Amino acid sequence: MSKETPCVAVCMIDPKTKLCFGCGRTLPEIARWHAMESAERLAVMALLPVRMNQAGLAPLAGSPKRT
């Protein structure tokens, strides 16, 4: 995967939060990801850890945040 994507190839949307379990993006963000400028992608990626934490979603195995 590119360094400018949070995708961990676990594409499942949480029905309650509408966030991807794997990366924390919304469906609209995922759909237009490749059309976004680099700065916009990086800005969204910076929000994902807090977004997932606030939603109560733990990063899945293979996620960049996991050690």
Describe the structure.
This protein is mainly alpha-helical and 67 residues long. It has one domain (1-58). The protein has two helices and no strands. It has helices spanning 27-32, 38-55. The protein starts with 26 loop residues before the first helix and ends in a 12-residue tail after the last helix. Mean pLDDT is 87; it is low at 62-67.
Helical residue percent band = 25-40%
Q: What's the mean pLDDT score?
A: 87
Rg: 11 Å
Form type: globular
Count of domain modules: 1
Helix count from the secondary structure assignment: 2
What proportion strand? Answer: under 5%
Quaternary structure state of the chains depicted: single chain
Q: Count the beta strands.
A: 0
Distance between the termini: 17 Å
Order of helices and strands: HH
